[in-house]
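Quick log. Single chain, no ligands specified.
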Amino acid sequence: MHPRDFLELIIRPTLKALGHWSEEAERLLLGTAIQETRLRFLRQRVGHRNYYGPGLGIYSMEGATYRDIQVNYLRYRPELLAKIESFLFPAETPLKQLASNLPYATAMARMQYLRFPEKLPSSLEEQAQLWKLRYNTLLGKGTPEEYVNNWKRIVKDDVLF
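-> predicted structure:
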């Protein structure tokens, strides 16, 4: 998927509908998707044999993270929960929609960052650090350097902002 298409057609309108839009949030979510799935996969790939891991969707969110957001964050914010649920399709479970519903997955990825106190940074390097701390976690295999390199490789010279 082209990063500009994903940004303009999915990330930006989703964040604006949630009332949590900013240029920093757009960049961070685009960077998260680039790092997690290279904007290509809807299921986490593990190893060279294409085994599937627990991550679902373009942001590769794990079920445990999804449930934690629901139970420990959104449950106490019913107005925000209602906005997020407005993105859901009626036929599938919400967890499965992390893979099949890009606006819903985007909203949930935004919640992962929103529930922490840090102000969203504007520089790519600082966003990579925040991704590592709050999305990948300190125990995750990804690195901020990899995040920056993947951004530069996929976005290239396209002026998105």
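The radius of gyration is 15 Å.
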